[in-house]
Automatic annotation (TrEMBL):
It comes from the Bacteria. InterPro entries: PhoU-like_sf, Put_Phosphate_transp_reg, UPF0111_domain. Pfam families: PhoU_div. Belongs to the UPF0111 family. This is DUF47 domain-containing protein.
Length: 212
């Protein structure tokens, strides 16, 4: 029995989406934690981390696809279909850009800089708060906790902006044009991940405003 059939058989129609979103959030936790730990022990000659990020990205694609399948098959949804679409796409964007960050680190053989791990930690913390927000979003029982998580995610994104700026300043001081191009590109991809997390937080907060 495929994953879709299992959900149809054992889950109330409007509960399927929360189950899937929680699975997506759990997957992002695993992916971002593995990325952060891999960055701390980075080795440009070992592509294990890149392969793991690729696997996570494919798993996220599968979960996102299942959400869209369920959206097409079910009339009853826990909140607006448009919001389900935005939330699913936003969560998938986080995984896409995290994988892209890993890919460019290896393609560029980019030297490790401290801002990589600083940004990866902010990404992991953002994913933890996304997980908390989605869990508390269920049945709109804890809107206060959801909003607090969203505020934290917005704060992490602001910090990431500062880390990006400082990282660019530091790498320009090297006066090495090739290094500047490589490091600046990776830093910008990592910062985009925090932007995508903030987009997810904004979507979740809008859902709470509508329904809580």
């Amino acid at each position: 029995m495929g994953i879709g059939n299992i959900f149809r058989a054992f889950q109330p129609k409007d509960k399927i989406f929360f189950v899937l979103f929680e699975q997506v959030a759990d997957k992002l936790i695993d992916m971002s934690k593995e990325f952060h730990e891999g960055i701390k022990d980075f080795d440009i000659n070992d592509d294990t981390l890149l392969k793991k990020m690729s696997d996570y990205e494919h798993q996220m694609d599968d979960l996102t696809h299942e959400i869209f399948v369920q959206l097409g098959e079910n009339f009853i949804t826990p909140f607006d279909r448009e919001d389900i679409n935005y939330l699913a796409a936003g969560l998938d964007d986080i995984a896409d850009y995290l994988f892209a960050s890993a890919k460019y680190i290896y393609l560029y053989k980019s030297p490790e800089v401290k801002q990589y791990s600083e940004l990866s930690l902010l990404i992991y913390k953002s994913c933890v708060e996304i997980q908390n927000a989605i869990k508390n979003l269920k049945e709109f029982a804890n809107p206060k906790e959801v909003k607090e998580s969203c505020i934290k995610i917005n704060s992490f994104e602001n910090i990431a902006d500062d880390v990006l700026s400082q990282g660019i300043v530091d790498v320009f001081e090297s006066n090495d044009p090739i290094k500047i191009i490589k490091v600046k590109s990776v830093l910008e991809y990592l910062e985009i991940v925090t932007d995508k997390a903030e987009d997810v937080a904004n979507t979740i907060e809008n859902i709470v405003i509508k329904y809580a």
